[in-house]
Amino acid sequence: MKTIIYIIPVFGVLALLYTFWKASWVSKQDVGTEKMARISKYIAEGAMAFLKAEYKVLAIFVIAVAILLAVSADPVNSSPIIGISFLIGAFCSALAGFIGMRVATKANVRTTNKARKSMEKALEVAFAGGSVMGLGVVGLGVLGLGGLFLIYSSVYGVNTANDLTRVITIITGFSFGASSIALFARVGGGIYTKAADVGADLVGKIEAGIPEDHHLNPATIADNVGDNVGDVAGMGADLFESYVGSIIGTMVLGAAFFGYPEFADKFNGLGAVLLPLVIAGVGIVVSIFGTFFVRVKEGGDPQKALNMGEFGSSAIMILALYFIIKWMMPESWTHEDPLYGITYTITSTGIFFATVIGLIAGVLIGVLTEYYTGQGKKPVNNIVRQSLTGSATNIIAGIGNGLNSTAMPLIVIALSIIGAFHFGGLYGIAIAAVGMLSNTGIQLAVDAYGPISDNAGGIAEMAELPKEVRQRTDKLDAVGNTTAAIGKGFAIGSAALTALALFGAFMMAADIKSIDISKAVVMAGLFLGGMLPFLFSSMAMNAVGKAAMSMIEEVRRQFKDIPELANALKVMKKNDGKEQEEWSDDDKITFAKADGVPEYGKCVEISTKAAIRQMVTPGLLAVFTPVFIGWIGGPEMLGGLLAGVTVTGVLMAIFQANAGGAWDNAKKTIEEGVEIDGVKYGKGSELHKAAVVGDTVGDPFKDTSGPSLNILIKLMAVVSLVIAPLIK
Fold first, then answer.
1. How many domains does the chain have?
2. Domain-located, residue 592
3. pTM (2 d.p.)
4. What is the pLDDT of residues 585-634, one digit of tens each?
5. How far is CA 344 from CA 165, 333, 353, 642, in A?
6. Is residue 711 part of a domain?
7. Is there a contact between 437 and 242 (Cβ–Cβ < 8 Å)?
């Protein structure tokens, strides 16, 4: 047993060594021209300034909660050390975001520079930057959990069921810390990026008639910073806490098998507890292997290259899962379910099937998300056509598509829950969540590639590079939109299964055998839980609206009050449709005077202050609501709350993420040029303006409130699990 416990953290170290290697390789690539380097520096400084401001605020929260956890810990079933676990979890989550952001802001300009030569080289750099985020997340997760289990099992021992339960309870603090940081990172990053994006779109594109990423647009640096703080640091923290939460939930349920005679020769009875950690560790190796599949030739399809890495690693993982589970689990055993009071036989083959069900469900949700949000697909094409009659019908089509897109993913999730339970009971559902997240390293690498490519396109536009460079980065960016949407779908699916695993773990920790919804307190909890995703979404959307108003006013002020900017805009309108080489010498001189004049820093400051200020209330709502409900209503009412927030939260998250993704790709489809009924449309057309409005509405859907709901669901479940010993 000790051998495997010592080996597990080694997998985490391996992942971190890989990230160091890839990060060093990215840093060695050439940044390009002096102007490109200057723009990249603005973006990197803005991103780091936001992280520093955010982490200063979060440090106060983290220290306060850690002290509360230590003081209130049950001395019999837990320990004050749970506060230390919380601190380590929060630190690892923050560090994962920091590492990913640091490399992403280096990879963006280097991707642009490589795109001057070929798309193949540009993809290589962008994906390398993404892989640092992906492997950094899983490396810190496995190292943190594996290291804590090694230390705590040595201190407290795992010789009895009570010892094991105590060790795992203390480790749940790690998941709580990760979830707390993830929520604030997602909400804060989402508010930041969308305030900047809306300002850049509405004032730049609609009012001034200049491209979103044009260097004369004062909000463009803040917009590119936002891609990193929202989609790199935010998504990284999101999947980090899903990854950790699914492993913790499975370990809690696996502890129920401790003492079974069939498990006696399986790592001293800890086979079911250690299995999720071993799967995660092997998943790291498979993800690293999968990164070498991502290759594309010039003129090839980047989507196919990324799919090859993702699906190839999934196929290898399925094969690996079979041997891991057969090695670590008994051939069969009779299980007396602690919740349902029924006895049934579970087999190692059944656990394998449950794990594979989770992995396949994740892939299917990704495929469905690609259908509802991808360019060239029927739903997006329908939104494009509906834009012919204006922004109102564009918005109606987008909302309709988002609502419709909830059906199939929910059916997949429901079938996976039933299938996993059939093969392995509650433990089967938990291990299915681990299976879904087993190749998180490659999945997150593919996802983080998106914002790097988006930034690369923005830098190409701001640096006024040749058209073929922007065409290459746009192709990478269009694929990145789809991978980002798939990543969000994947995060939502994992949230559903992880929340269910944590829900089962909470019931065991709170010693609840069943939850009767006919009871008034349970029904009240169910309704309150169902309401929370709507209230949470309204807070996030309103926060974006308020921040965007400040951004819009600032961009308008600069266009009006800075003479060089105002004159440059007049020159652009005068020469609309002409290449810059065709302009008069006077116009060229006037335009050149505006270079470097926009006050980018003020826009970055507006987004930073708004995000930090507005993220606090939604975050506190998620942390303290389960504590309050558990205190006044007891564990059954809290169980009802968790059931309600999980169901409506998953539905709302899918709706918002897919509606926003489809609106975004509808806009990009028109920007690339589209022909409808024999008429061609492109940038600047009425069709395009309607699509920009729809995309602006969808931005906070897909990048702020939608993805934040995943964390709301899991954070509330983790908080409930942590406080369960105190309220039972």
1. 1
2. no
3. 0.86
4. 888 888 788 777 788 888 888 888 888 887 788 878 888 899 999 999 88
5. 23, 8, 16, 27
6. yes
7. yes
